[in-house]
Amino acid sequence: MPSFPKSKLRAKLHRWWSTPRIWKFFILRIRLASTYQALDRYQVLFWAGLVGVLGGLSSVLFRKLLDLMAFALSGRHGGVVEIFTGLPPWQRLITPIVGGLVAGAVLYFGGRWHSRRDSSTDFMEAVVLGEGSLSFRSSIVKILSAAFSVTSGGSIGREGPMVQLSSLLASLVGRTRKWSVAQRRLILACGASAGIAAAYNAPIAGSLFVAEIVVGSIAMETFGPLVFSSVLATQTVRFLAGSEPLYVIPPFHLQSGLELLYYLALGLLAGLVAPWFLRALRGSEKLFGKTCLPAYLRLALGGLVVGILALRYPEVCGNGYSVVNGILQEQWLWSSLAILLLLKVTATCASFGSGAVGGVFTPTLFVGASVGYLFGHACAGLGLVGLPAPGALALAGMGMVLAATTHAPLMAIIMIFEMTLDYQLILPLMLGCVLAHFTALGFESGSIYSASLKRKGAGYVQRHLALLKVGGLMKSDPARVRPNTPFVQIARHFVLQTYRYLYVVNEQEVYIGAVGLHDIKQYLGSSSLDNLIVAQDLLTDGPPQITYSASLEEALERFSSYSGERLPVVADGPLPRLLGSLAKTDLLLALAERVPPTEGQFAGEAKES
User: Fold this and answer.
1) Which of 156, 189, 286, 403 could form a disulfide with 433 if both were Cys (CB 3.0 to 4.6 A apart)?
2) Cβ distance 89 to 309 under 8 Å?
3) 526 within domain boundaries
4) Residues 501, 542: contact at Cβ < 8 Å?
């Protein structure tokens, strides 16, 4: 072997170790910057993944907390329906009342504890209208209140507080970083996506739920981090709690093309039922609001309604998960299920309308499963031929009613598939969900998540207009130096931050140019030049400037002719004083949210969080 390569390697190592420490880091920094020009995007994925893991852990821990509270309340293990079935009648009546009283007291007295300055109290509002931050105190109050409502038999879902908890952790992560409003909104949306994915073991649907309903965009700049967060949240839950699908169903098959007609008819029926279900929920909310009772008495009144219904039908308690499993297994008589459907909707309206914190997502699935199952039996009673199995229609009905109430048919299709892991019914489900969505739009343009943001959206236009200018997106106080700054200080700046340009300003903070990372490579290792070369000697025009009041379209045009990740933002007027910097990622996120949601697209609702 010739010795030259070894000698060359030794020479390189000698030069490396003889270089001052700061230069070693600096050379490494340049090489990394050359390899990873879009480091900010990788950072977003890293934080989205971290939020996903935290969301999965929090979901598992919250489920354990609910199990412990249910055992302390009844001395029994199992689901809510199973526990209430084993209780004596007097306890079935009293438990929801006491639970509602305690849950309401937590909201009532907790409202005095949390800060009134925090306007965003639920994740949907914070993502769509707020600044990407959740109030820690108010979130804890809502989560505790929801825990008492759920474990005491309230006809409300546990997925709501699980999503709220995951979103709260994401908000805390966002507060630790110096991010823009758009980035904080995105990381908060990742927390919500993680919570939904962990609750339903459905990573794709969790991503689509937030992208389609909350963010209102499936652009990769937003959807990519949502997917990252959802997948890691789901994998965390599967690692800690198992990977079984949420609903266990018998195998269903599409026997003939004739069956598609029944699924289309079911989609039409679901589109007609869903608006009335929404109106019942909103009507109950108005009815309880007219009582003018404090929160603890109002929730106790809702618990009284649930308790009375539970005396004869304990299946009205909880979110309806166990009953849906029975429907999919075709274990119910149609007559009993018809009565239970009416009572369950009444109980859900009582819990929802009284102000109980929790989700209505799973109760909506119950309504869809019941409608599909009863539709199948009605068709069989009419002697129609070529019918699908009632359980198959129940499964399709879940997705169709969900699509009609959320106005998010794509999310509903994927959600049902992921919860069951059954591909057989995906084609008729797609047809029925789209038909149900368009049918429901003809009667009710608002979704199940519309009311809250419609009430809270008075300031949306002002916030939106602020984001239409560069000044609403820029990060203030970027790294800057004077023209006489020595080379050694410039090097330290580049070692401590990840940007490719260091802005140069004069004594009046007027922007005069920039020093590029690639422009100083030739001076590396020359320690004798540390204090001889100054920023003025390395000055270039740098990236193109953008003014504070420029539009987002103008900023996008500047980026189209510049491959870098940031633009310097200067003041309007004759003196271009440096005010901040605009990141390409923030611009793309803002443009993804550009179109304000209409009434039918508003995505927020305090109940769900």
Assistant:
1) 403
2) no
3) yes
4) yes
3-state helix, strand, coil in the chain (%, to 5): 65, 5, 30
Could you give the CA distance from residue 304 to residue 311 in angstroms, rounded to a whole number? 11
pLDDT averaged per 10 residues, the chain (length 609): 49 51 54 51 81 92 88 77 86 90 88 54 58 79 89 86 88 80 81 88 83 66 83 90 75 79 93 91 88 89 92 88 86 89 93 86 90 92 85 91 89 85 82 92 75 48 54 76 78 68 83 76 58 73 81 75 78 83 73 44 35
Cα(first)–Cα(last) distance of the chain, in Å? 69
Residue with tokens 């209780």: 87
Task: Give the DSSP letter of residue 550.
Answer: -
> Is 53 exposed, middle or buried, given 0-12, 13-18 or 19+ CB atoms closer than 10 A?
middle
Q: Is residue 428, in this structure, part of any structural domain at all?
A: no
The Cα 182–Cα 17 span in angstroms is: 43
Nearest by Cα to 266 from 401, 361, 386: 401
**For residue 330, is it left (φ>0), alpha (ψ between -120 and 50) or beta?**
left
CA distances, 6 to each of 13, 24, 334, 345 (Å): 10, 21, 84, 80
pLDDT of residue 458: 38
Q: Take residue 292 and report the two structure tokens written for it.
A: 């003018």
| 431 inside domain | no
Where helices occur in 220-311 by DSSP H, the ranges are 220-241, 259-289, 295-310
Q: Please give the backbone phi and psi of residue 81, each rounded to the nearest 5 degrees, phi first.
A: -65, -45
- How many domains does one find in the chain? 1
Per-residue pLDDT, 83: 86
Residue range(s) defining the domain that contains residue 487 = 467-592
The pair of three-digit structure tokens given for residue 407, joined into one six-digit string: 């106005």
pLDDT given for residue 123 in this prediction: 60
Distance (Å, whole) CA 58 – CA 221: 26
CB-CB neighbours of 276 under 10 Å: 14
Residue 246 counted as domain residue: no
Q: Are the C-beta atoms of 413 and 403 separated by less than 8 Å?
A: yes
Distance of CA 439 to the CA centre of its chain: 27
Question: What is the rounded distance in angstroms from the CA atom of residue 311 to the CA atom of residue 607?
Answer: 26
How far is the C-alpha of 235 from the C-alpha of 197, rounded, in Å?
10
CB 206 within 8 A of CB 190: no
pLDDT of res. 119: 44
Q: pLDDT tens-digit profile of 517-575?
A: 776 666 655 555 556 677 777 777 778 888 888 877 777 777 777 767 788 888 887 78
CATH code assigned at 485: 3.10.580.10
Do the beta carbons of residue 53 and residue 230 sit within 8 Å?
no
Q: What is the pLDDT of residue 267?
A: 93
Give the span between the Cα atoms of 24 and 183, in whole angstroms.
Answer: 32
pLDDT of 601: 33
Distance in angstroms (rounded) separating the CA atoms of residues 103 and 324: 26
